[in-house]
Design brief:
2 domains, 10 helices, mainly alpha
Length: about 250
């Protein structure tokens, strides 16, 4: 990037959003995540014996997680593509694609721009506003990370205390918490439109069929790929219904 490309009043956002410095920072974030993933995989394999897990079970779990991540990743990719003109590729990769939330980041960036009487993507969206908006998104993500760093040890102590009182409690609580979180998110989506309701019903039916066939036919891979298959069918259903209703033009 040439020095002339930096102009706080310029609306040429890409000149700084896709600068070498931004790409270098994004590469650093990716490197950290890759190293973390390798550490986690190594820790899983080294502690598998203590948890009575065979290498085959560990491989199946990792494979299931990888497959389950495909559907949500596609959704994130679609959101990321729509945000590229606003924030540039490096910022979108590090915030939306890895450690951020599209809803939060857009809200944070919009509020930050609003404090300067500017609007994202509008004629007042200058390099200065981009810097302020990106700083707001980054600071929000930083607080999340710090909260996790601080609260995790405290929650671990509580976990140890509850296990001493009643070991069964910590077997039920995590599952109940996850179930409650997913049910809440699901019910929120069903309130948006009839298409959301049908999409949910189709994905649930496909997942149930995959689990039934996996058990009936003795095909464990159907259980591993069930989430990915149900997401594909749900996306197809949503697309067809939206096309027929004219929502896609």
């Amino acid at each position: 990037m040439s020095p002339n490309a930096v102009d706080p009043g310029s609306t040429d956002i890409i000149a700084i959003a896709d600068s070498p410095v931004m790409w270098l920072c994004a590469a650093g974030v990716f490197l950290v995540i890759i190293v973390q993933s390798l550490i986690y995989l190594r820790a899983i394999r080294s502690s598998a014996a203590a948890a009575d897990l065979t290498p085959a079970q560990v491989n199946a779990s990792v494979r299931t997680g990888a497959v389950a991540a495909i559907g949500p990743s596609l959704a994130v990719a679609l959101v990321a593509i729509s945000l590229l003109p606003l924030f540039g590729t490096p910022a979108v990769l590090t915030r939306i694609g890895l450690v951020g939330s599209a809803a939060f980041d857009l809200a944070a960036a919009g509020i930050a721009a609003g404090t300067q009487d500017a609007q994202l993507g509008g004629p007042t969206y200058t390099q200065k506003i981009f810097a302020i908006a990106f700083a707001a998104m980054t600071m929000g993500g930083l607080v999340w990370m710090l909260a996790t760093l601080i609260l995790t040890p405290l929650l671990s102590k509580g976990d140890a205390t509850l296990r001493k009182v009643n070991p069964a409690v910590m077997t039920i609580v995590p599952g109940a918490a996850l179930l409650g979180a997913f049910i809440t998110l699901t019910l929120q989506e069903t309130q948006k439109s009839f298409i959301h309701v049908v999409t949910l019903a189709v994905s649930a039916a496909v997942m149930a069929i995959c689990l039934f066939l996996a058990h009936r036919l003795g095909k464990p891979w159907l259980r591993e790929w069930g989430l990915g298959i149900s997401i594909v069918f749900a996306l197809g259903t949503a697309f067809v219904m939206a096309s027929n209703s004219g929502l896609l033009g």
